[in-house]
């Protein structure tokens, strides 16, 4: 006689086992007809769960079928395979997750994210800031997840998951906020304007300026970031090439490629490298193994484009800019801040964000000194004066008092909020279960080298930030060489199209129509050659790193 009592707790635990181990439907059929004896059923349990840690689950599953009707056991298992809402999978944190990949919530979430990202890609035409659609999408996705989990007896699961994503964003947000504040402070002290005017005043030819702006973009972006660097070099190009649209277009292509390539070998150069470093996957100095591949990804297309640059000389400018008081000391403090962030992470095992916030205190204290010592000497030496530029814009080098909070307020808040939306959207899709499916398809079936190469191509179509965050969320088992490969491809792959990186998108707006999607597309083939050669160079030069597993 069978015991008609079914333990609900045992059913839930057995469901977790059945889904995670993929017990086939045929086994349920055999169990229904009682073709397994008690001893054979125990053997089946051992076959399904060879891990001793799962002994509790074995007990629950055995208790379910040994103490219940065979019919009840059959219909319980059938329900698990028909309805994904009834299936629970054990997560790494010890909490339970619903598999929503085949549920309407999963499908709607994907649709919402794609729809939001279409608006991001169309920002140039709609003038709708890219942060707005993704922030809204993230709220809707997590709202649906939370309601679904609450209806299935897990009211706090979504809360725990979203807190983890918010922590990821908070570290990135505080790090970038400090970097942007320093950049704004140096811009206010006329550091970048002085460099621009110096280059213009030298009377270099177009081909010389093509290489100078490219090389400067390559070496400045590892310290600042590729977006700021690209905008700075674009200002130089627009100042000297106002009468030559062909030079402006090709020089902007070169700047985008150089800035993205330079950012690929430094944790500070791009958001993708910063995320990998902050995650603790690759050490700070290990990134510099990508220097030669990054150089190749810049030099090869630049050498090809060189012959299309007009062999002419622009008219020299007579503008003069004097950097404001404290400019050089702020540059030194920025360098000291970077050293502090690296030291906190490398030696104290603290988040780099903590070091950057400490560095921000350097600037706040020095800003207080500048403000309190501001006097007649500043007004006399740096009095308000304006000089006309060739594009009818005005350079103002006044003696306004230094205010640190104005520098903070001028941070790229749209970009920071965009990161929030992207991280939570991708985190939500990962919590639903889609990233695990993608990881299985790409990194297990295709292999990590092919998958990481495709990540770079995907970064040209979709921005590299959500792509890299998705990879980090999946966190496939890869060697250090493979993690460097995906960092390289995500960084330089965005150069294949103008919409593939923040630098390209920004320059399309800053160039006032002289650098466009199609002017960049004209040289995609040359950039692709550099992309492929950079990958081959990394596979050859850093071959020994592909056998070093990430701890």
Describe the overall structure.
By secondary structure, the protein is mainly alpha-helical. It has a domain at 8-82. The protein is 68% helix and 2% strand. It has 27 helices and 4 strands. It has helices spanning 8-21, 25-32, 38-48, 55-66, 70-82, 104-121, 123-126, 131-151, 157-188, 191-201, 206-220, 226-240, 245-263, 271-278, 291-306, 327-346, 352-372, 376-381, 404-409, 413-432, 434-446, 448-461, 464-474, 480-493, 502-510, 517-521, 524-541; strands spanning 88-90, 96-98, 386-388, 394-396. The chain has a two-stranded antiparallel ribbon with strand order 1-2. The chain has a two-stranded antiparallel ribbon with strand order 3-4. Strand 1 (88-90) and strand 2 (96-98) form a beta hairpin. The model is unreliable at 1-94 and 384-398 (pLDDT under 50).
């Amino acid at each position: 006689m069978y015991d008609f009592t079914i333990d609900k707790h045992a059913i839930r635990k057995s469901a977790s086992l059945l889904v995670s181990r993929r017990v086939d439907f045929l086994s349920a059929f055999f169990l229904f007809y009682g073709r397994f004896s008690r001893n054979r059923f125990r053997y089946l349990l051992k076959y399904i769960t060879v891990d001793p840690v799962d002994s509790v689950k074995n007990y629950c599953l055995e208790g379910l079928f040994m103490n219940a009707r065979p019919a009840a056991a059959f219909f319980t298992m059938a329900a698990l395979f028909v309805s994904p809402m009834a299936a629970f999978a054990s997560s790494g944190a010890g909490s339970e997750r619903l598999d929503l990949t085949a549920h309407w919530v999963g499908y709607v979430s994907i649709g919402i994210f794609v729809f939001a990202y279409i608006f991001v890609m169309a920002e140039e035409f709609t003038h709708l800031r890219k942060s707005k659609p993704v922030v809204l999408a993230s709220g809707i996705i997590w709202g649906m997840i939370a309601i679904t989990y609450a209806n299935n007896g897990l009211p706090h699961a979504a809360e725990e998951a979203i807190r983890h994503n918010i922590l990821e964003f908070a570290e990135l947000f505080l790090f970038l906020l400090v970097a942007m504040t320093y950049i704004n402070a140096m811009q206010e002290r006329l550091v970048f304007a002085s460099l621009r005017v110096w280059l213009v005043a030298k009377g270099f030819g177009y081909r010389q300026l093509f290489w100078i702006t490219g090389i400067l973009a390559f070496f400045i972006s590892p310290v600042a970031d590729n977006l700021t660097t690209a905008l700075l070099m674009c200002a130089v190009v627009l100042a000297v090439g106002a009468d030559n649209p062909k030079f402006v277009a090709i020089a902007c292509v070169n700047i985008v490629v150089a800035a993205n390539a330079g950012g690929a070998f430094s944790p500070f150069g791009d958001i993708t490298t910063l995320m990998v470093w902050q995650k603790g996957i690759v050490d700070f100095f290990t990134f510099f193994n990508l220097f030669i591949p990054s150089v190749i990804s810049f030099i090869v297309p630049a050498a090809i484009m060189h012959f299309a640059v007009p062999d002419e000389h622009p008219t020299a400018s007579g503008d003069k800019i004097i950097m404001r008081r404290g400019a050089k000391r702020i540059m030194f403090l920025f360098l000291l801040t970077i050293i502090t962030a690296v030291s906190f992470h490398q030696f104290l095992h603290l988040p780099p964000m903590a070091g950057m916030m400490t560095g921000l205190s350097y600037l706040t204290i020095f800003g207080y000194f500048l403000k309190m010592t501001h006097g007649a000497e500043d007004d006399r030496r740096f009095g308000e004066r304006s000089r006309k530029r060739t594009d009818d814009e005005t350079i103002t080098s006044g003696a306004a008092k230094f205010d640190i909070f104005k520098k903070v307020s001028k941070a790229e808040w749209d970009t920071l909020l965009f990161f929030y939306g992207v991280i939570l959207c991708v985190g939500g899709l990962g919590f639903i279960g889609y990233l695990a499916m993608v990881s299985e398809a790409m990194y297990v079936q295709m292999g990590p080298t092919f998958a990481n190469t495709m990540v770079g191509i995907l970064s040209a179509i979709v921005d590299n930030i959500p792509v890299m965050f998705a990879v980090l969320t999946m966190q496939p088992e890869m060697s250090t060489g493979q993690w460097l490969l995906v960092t390289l491809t995500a960084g330089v792959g965005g150069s294949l199209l103008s919409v593939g990186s923040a630098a390209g998108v920004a320059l399309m707006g800053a160039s006032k129509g002289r650098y466009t999607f199609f002017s960049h597309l004209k040289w995609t083939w040359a950039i692709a050659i550099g992309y492929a050669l950079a990958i081959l160079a990394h596979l050859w030069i850093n071959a020994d790193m592909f056998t070093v597993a990430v701890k």
